[in-house]
Design goal:
Elements: E1 3-5, H1 15-21, E2 30-32, H2 40-44, H3 51-63, H4 69-80, E3 91-95, E4 98-102, H5 112-130, E5 134-139, H6 143-152, E6 158-165, H7 171-178, E7 185-190, H8 194-206, E8 217-219, H9 225-241, E9 250-254, H10 259-269, E10 277-281, H11 286-293, H12 317-324, H13 329-335, H14 347-356, E11 357-361, H15 364-378, H16 384-396, E12 404-408, H17 416-422, E13 445-447, H18 451-461
Length: about 475
């Protein structure tokens, strides 16, 4: 299988080269040349499979020309061996035909573990086969960083640099990153916001002259196709657990960068019956405004109780735009040529998007109320991001007869401020393997919001 750029000018690549390239040379994102599909009968036959076997079945068509079956099964087995729950992504009922899928059972308590434990193992395999050493550079609004570090910290052929916005992630999120003291791990606290961090990653990929000879950047952010691919699996897992493919199963996804919900869109394209995908945003609602009012204008970033969604530039939205424009890379390149200008979609394109997606915006005050209400009615505690997904699902839901699955993207212990506002005095203990997290030694570098400062630090650290 070949992978092509959303902007149409970069060369097509194999799966392995796509994973190790990240951002395409024309500034676009890689997508499969053709999406593999499964018949309803083939999907039905997957019912009852373990999560690991299901992951192999779903992802194998994308990788079969680059990896052996034994290699792929090994990557999957190692990736999910550190998850605390044997179901990997258990489902919890929170209302009539309403379910929460717990995606925080991995080592860093966030849904990013599904993709980044897999990606770390994949990097290790590919780099050893090629005898190559690379530099991972990533940006995080909170959860990607710790998951990427956990996935890559044991890789001998990787040095990893993760930027986070200084004082704009939760204390638990920060400590999960900065308390990893491995020699190949570097945490950079940038005096800016997440979009600044993300823009620096993109600029660095465009000009890598600051790196020592023989080194290159690879991406762990959701611009990396392998991350999106790994996330497709849990949509199939949830649907098969709730009666799919014999009935449609719908999903509500708290999202800022559009990667997680784009994986659901791909699952639908691969044959999974999904009638509704709900985009759930916080006050940083550019995705909701785009779908509901064709308003994609950037606005000042708001610091919220759901910091992992404090994003105004949704990188993966470009992948959807590519499909909405008939996979015309030139059209996407023209549309995104001036990122300072408000993006407006043609009405025909907007209507296509609205047939696929609903959207809702949920502010901090309502988020706190939902956490309290769900706990009082079910004794189940939501983190603020998941609460936004639950509220958006309840507001946008079209059919009570079809199961609605809300993606629980993080453990509530990571967001004690929101929990305390909803349920004063409630202490949510961290899982046993993190019980001493707040006492662990930290190591990080605070840097100004300047690309040259970031490049100088990386160059010096690499010697």
């Amino acid at each position: 299988m070949k992978f092509i750029s959303t902007r149409g000018r970069a060369p097509s690549l194999s799966f392995a080269d796509t994973v190790l390239t990240g951002l395409a040379s024309d500034g676009g994102l890689y997508v499969p040349e053709k999406l593999p599909t499964f018949s309803r009968e083939e999907i039905a036959e997957m019912a009852g499979l373990s999560y690991e076997e299901l992951a192999f079945r779903i992802m194998w068509p994308f990788v079969s020309e680059d990896l052996s079956e034994e290699e792929m099964r090994g990557v999957i087995e190692r990736a999910y061996s550190s998850f605390r729950h044997s179901a990997i992504a258990p489902l919890i009922q929170t209302g009539h035909n309403e379910w929460v899928m717990e995606l925080f059972q991995g080592p860093t308590l966030a849904f990013k573990d599904f993709a980044l434990q897999f990606l770390g193992q994949l990097f290790d395999l590919l780099l050893k086969k090629r005898g190559e050493k690379v530099v991972v550079l990533g940006a995080t609004s909170g959860d990607t960083g710790s998951a990427a570090i956990e996935g890559c910290r044991h890789c001998e052929n990787i040095d990893i640099f993760i930027m986070h916005p200084h004082n704009r992630v939760s204390e638990v999120q920060r400590k999960q990153m900065t308390s990893v003291l491995s020699d190949n791990v570097f945490n950079l606290a940038l005096e800016g916001n997440f979009d600044d961090c993300q823009n620096m990653v993109k600029a660095s990929f465009a000009d890598q002259s600051f790196l020592p000879d023989g080194r290159r950047l690879v991406a762990v952010n959701s611009i990396n196709w392998a991350r999106i691919m790994a996330q497709i699996v849990y949509y199939f897992h949830a649907a098969l657990s709730l009666g799919g493919p014999h009935r449609a199963v719908n999903f509500s996804v708290p999202t800022g960068n559009f990667g997680d919900i784009f994986a659901g869109y791909l699952a639908r394209g691969m044959g999974l019956p999904i009638n509704q995908l709900v985009i759930a945003t916080n006050a940083n609602d550019i995705l909701h405004r785009c779908i509901s009012a064709n308003d994609h204008s950037p606005q000042p970033l708001v610091h919220s109780l759901s910091p992992s969604m404090d994003i105004m530039v949704s990188s993966n939205f470009e992948r959807l735009l590519f499909d909405l424009h008939g996979r015309d890379g030139a059209a996407v390149a023209r549309l995104l040529a001036d990122r300072s200008a408000p993006l407006k979609l043609d009405e025909s394109v907007l209507e296509k998007a609205r047939t696929l997606f609903a959207s809702e915006r949920v502010g901090d005050e309502r988020t706190v109320e939902v956490i309290r209400q769900v706990f009082e009615s079910t004794e189940y505690l939501l983190d603020p991001h998941t609460a936004i997904g639950v509220e958006a699902a309840r507001k946008a839901r079209k059919s009570q007869a079809e199961p609605m699955v809300c993606l629980a993207t993080a453990h509530p212990a990571k967001f004690s401020e929101a929990v305390d506002k909803a349920l004063p005095g409630t202490k949510v203990p961290l899982p046993h393997h993190m019980a001493d997290l707040m006492e662990r030694e930290e190591r990080l570098q605070i840097l100004p919001n300047e690309l040259s400062a970031v490049h100088d630090f990386i160059s010096h650290a690499l010697g």
